[in-house]
Design a protein that fits this description.
- The chain is an alpha+beta fold.
- The chain contains five helices and six strands.
- 21% of the residues are buried.
Length: 139
């Protein structure tokens, strides 16, 4: 596996200490996380620095934002060769109403939608809401 430094450099991102820490944190999660979640993990960090790191990662295709309907944007790691293009790379997400976690369903792609003439999609978001497999076993 390539080093994180190399992955960031390949995306034209300078691998600062904070960027490396945030990358490792996000990469260790199997759920999407909010800025607040990251702040709690790095209690001595500056919120603005964390936000800028997330925005840099988003703009360079390392993370993608997830609007799961909870009112808080969450971020999840992109797949290795993802471009987050409408009709190509976008996948579904699952929001568990029991544990309030949001997971990427990367094996379930959002199908290409044929819009009426003159319409252009900039983003597509498909969130399935219900109970995840972990929580289903608890009920």
């Amino acid at each position: 596996m390539r080093s994180i430094d190399k992955k960031l450099q390949d995306k034209k991102i300078r691998p600062t200490a904070m960027r490396l820490l945030v990358y490792r944190f996000l990469n260790s999660k199997n759920v999407a996380v909010s800025l607040s979640d990251i702040e709690q993990a790095f209690d001595r960090s500056d919120r603005t620095t964390l936000y800028r790191t997330l925005k840099t990662f988003e703009n360079k295709g390392i993370v993608h934002p997830v609007d799961d309907g909870s009112g808080v944007v969450k971020y999840a790691m992109c797949e290795e060769h993802c471009n987050c293009e409408v009709g190509e790379d976008l996948h579904m997400h699952f929001y568990c109403s029991a544990c309030r976690e949001t997971m990427c369903l990367i094996d379930h792609k959002i199908p290409k939608i044929h819009l009426p003439e003159g319409f252009t999609a900039n983003n597509v978001n498909l969130v399935i809401k219900g109970t995840c497999n972990e929580c289903t076993g608890r009920t």
